[in-house]
């Protein structure tokens, strides 16, 4: 009898037989498996407190699909590289693209996506409020990886549009997301920090279509110090759940520094939440009210009611673009971070204050529809971002700066956060890039990190794997 059949029989017997209780789901745990090196000499420069190869808002700089794992980065010569390995293998096969990084700007990340409709790999790269670069592989490459040689011939030419669809000349933050039926969507920002709009494009397996903008940069926001009339919405992520609902947590970034208590802070405020039930064509607040329609004049604005799920003024150096996911039932979870009020009510130096007193928080919606927030009781010791992962049992894992891993169990109501791995042997710079798809593929937490260096001295880039409860 197969193992699955044996387990099924045992579970049914336990449920049917009086006095025999079903075993409780396991709590969180991590077991380090192995570390592989992608590049001994990856490009290294610090800008906006981050590295271009390890900005955690990349979606996806590392991904798993049909038994293979893919990674993308820039080398010491600033060439863009995409590599693959058999899942769990130790050898990476690399393709060097013809494109080179155009400037020392950590925003200019490489993001990858998979269009399941035709088995193509897509890459969008090297943009910060300007033009982007795009590469699309041959059809079927990701569906039949073992039978197709991994050479430059499988990747198309570098384009400055999506097969002729130009989108915008002020493009930033590409994030690819697969729809439940296998289409590929691209989320991005139009405009600049403090005055920008989020937008979507969609690939149906043959053609790209610009769906349009879905957030607004206009309206007046007023704090106790002053007002701002322009802003952008920074996404903590954009993800489909198991039921096909599209979720996005966000924070607002105001253009005017007048809203802050001190010019050394940052104008981010509030954690908001919206969702879509029609593949991003319209957006609803938590109460279910439509608050914006993509590609129309009525987009999601700071003045719309019911958007804020955790209120916070601009005095606490709230991080933008942190992390989110959804659990096995479709409930949304996020990580946010800021300087709590017990350390003062006015941050005066964004980087220093976050490094000294910053804390991460787990924000989630529970089964009764109530929003809850729990502080993760571990100092950030960094100005940078934390990533969130849920295992198959919905235990939560926060991958903190420097590759530290904290976790909390679902059974405790996510109240028992504790450090499981301190990351001290990684020598990681700060943020890490998570393989979101691998957790679902084989219960492995896999992330890419770069070793600390100084100035512009290149350093090693790695992928480390941790087994989660099976």
Architecture overview:
- This protein has 470 residues and is mainly β.
- The chain has helices at residues 3-16, 350-357, 436-442; strands at residues 31-42, 62-65, 68-74, 79-86, 93-100, 110-115, 120-125, 133-136, 171-178, 184-192, 195-203, 208-213, 221-222, 227-228, 231-235, 239-240, 246-254, 268-276, 282-284, 290-293, 308-310, 323-326, 332-338, 359-365, 371-376, 387-390, 396-400, 404-408, 418-421, 433-434, 444-450, 459-467.
- Strands 15, 16, 17, 18 and 21 form a 5-stranded antiparallel β-sheet that branches. Strands 1-32-31-30 form a 4-stranded antiparallel β-sheet.
- β22 (323-326) and β23 form a beta hairpin.
- It is globular.
- The relative contact order is 0.14.
SSE layout and pairings?
Layout: H1 3-16, E1 31-42, E2 62-65, E3 68-74, E4 79-86, E5 93-100, E6 110-115, E7 120-125, E8 133-136, E9 171-178, E10 184-192, E11 195-203, E12 208-213, E13 221-222, E14 227-228, E15 231-235, E16 239-240, E17 246-254, E18 268-276, E19 282-284, E20 290-293, E21 308-310, E22 323-326, E23 332-338, H2 350-357, E24 359-365, E25 371-376, E26 387-390, E27 396-400, E28 404-408, E29 418-421, E30 433-434, H3 436-442, E31 444-450, E32 459-467
Antiparallel strand pairs: 1-32, 2-3, 3-4, 4-5, 6-7, 7-8, 9-10, 10-11, 11-12, 13-14, 15-17, 16-17, 17-18, 18-21, 19-20, 22-23, 23-24, 24-25, 26-27, 27-28, 28-29, 30-31, 31-32
In short:
By secondary structure, this protein is mostly beta strands.
């Amino acid at each position: 009898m197969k193992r699955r059949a044996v387990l099924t029989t045992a579970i049914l017997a336990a449920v049917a037989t009086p006095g025999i209780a079903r075993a409780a789901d396991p709590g969180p745990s991590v077991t380090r498996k192995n570390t592989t090196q992608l590049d001994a000499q990856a490009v290294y420069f610090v800008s906006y407190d981050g590295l271009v190869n390890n900005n955690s808002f990349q979606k996806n700089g590392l991904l798993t699909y049909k038994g293979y794992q893919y990674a993308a980065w820039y080398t010491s010569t600033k060439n863009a590289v995409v590599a693959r390995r058999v899942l769990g293998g130790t050898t990476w096969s690399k393709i060097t693209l013809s494109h080179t990084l155009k400037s020392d700007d950590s925003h200019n990340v490489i993001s990858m996506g998979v269009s399941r409709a035709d088995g193509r790999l897509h890459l969008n790269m090297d943009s910060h409020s300007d033009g982007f670069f795009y590469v699309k592989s041959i059809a079927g490459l990701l569906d039949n990886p073992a039978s197709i040689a991994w050479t430059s011939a499988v990747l198309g030419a570098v384009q400055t549009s999506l097969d002729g669809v130009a989108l915008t000349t002020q493009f930033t933050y590409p994030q690819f997301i697969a729809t439940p039926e296998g289409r590929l969507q691209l989320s991005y920002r139009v405009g600049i920090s403090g005055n920008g709009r989020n937008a979507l494009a969609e690939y149906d397996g043959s053609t790209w279509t610009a769906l349009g903008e879905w957030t607004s940069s206009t309206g007046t926001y007023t704090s106790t110090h002053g007002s701002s009339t322009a802003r952008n919405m920074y996404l903590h992520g954009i993800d489909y759940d198991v039921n096909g609902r599209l979720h996005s947590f966000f924070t607002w970034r105001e253009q005017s520094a007048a809203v802050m208590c001190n010019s050394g802070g940052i104008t981010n405020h509030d954690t908001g939440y919206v969702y879509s039930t029609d593949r991003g064509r319209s957006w609803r607040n938590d109460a279910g009210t439509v608050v914006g329609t993509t590609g129309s004049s009525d987009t999601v604005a700071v003045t719309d009611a019911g958007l804020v799920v955790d209120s916070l003024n601009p005095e606490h150096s709230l991080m933008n673009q942190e992390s989110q996911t959804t659990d096995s039932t479709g409930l949304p979870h996020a990580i946010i971070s800021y300087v709590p009020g017990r350390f003062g009510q006015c941050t005066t130096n964004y980087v220093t204050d976050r490094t000294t007193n910053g804390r991460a928080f787990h924000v989630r919606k529970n089964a009764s529809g109530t929003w809850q927030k729990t502080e993760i009781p571990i100092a950030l010791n960094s100005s940078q971002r934390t990533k969130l992962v849920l295992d198959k049992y919905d235990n939560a894992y926060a991958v903190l700066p420097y590759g530290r891993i904290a976790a909390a169990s679902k059974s405790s109501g996510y109240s028992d956060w504790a450090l499981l791995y301190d990351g001290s042997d990684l020598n990681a710079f700060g943020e890490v890039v998570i393989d979101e798809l691998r957790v679902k593929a084989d219960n492995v937490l896999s992330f890419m990190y770069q070793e600390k260096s100084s100035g512009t001295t290149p350093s090693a880039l790695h992928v480390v794997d941790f087994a989660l409860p099976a």
